[in-house]
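Example (one chain per record):
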Amino acid sequence: MRSLRFARVSPLAARAASGYLSAMNGWVEYALAWLCFLGAHVAPMAPGPRAWLMARLGKAIYLTLFSLLSIALLVWLVRAAGAAPHVPLWDSGAWTRWLVNLVMPVAILTGALAVGMSGLVAAFAMWAAAHLVANGDLAHVVLFGGMALFAGMGLIRSGWPRQFRASLPRLALAAALWVALMLLHPVVVGLSPWPAG
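Predicted structure:
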């Protein structure tokens, strides 16, 4: 009788253990993605490694490789946040998806038309803030809250963009980027960016 009871409990315990390990793996990958992202952006702030890399690669190649690495790590971080266990903090209503779709064109135009790096930092801050409101679970709040803080610190240093240069190539770039983000969103995030999606 005792062995029969153990046989009934054992599958439940195995499922619970499997779920616990799966959740832990999700958090571990998320933490690892954060460490890699922060490490890749903190290390170049030191003058030694940055100067050493620029001297050997050249400024253009260094910036290109750094940009590609940053994009790859950001994609990994976003996907890891989506794979982390869902811990709800607040209910994000349908209106928040409209908010993101209204803010993102402004963010893209700011990044494309502003003179200097402050436009990119401001665009990043708007992206993070809008997505923070629209995602009320723990992993995404840490993700977008951290990104908003990261961008806010950049804005303190660079200031809000004050000069803009509108031109046909810049407007075309902004439009192409918006289309690319809308098409890639379901692939990277697994969710349609459209409010009714």
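Caption: The CA atoms of residues 138 and 176 lie 32 Å apart.
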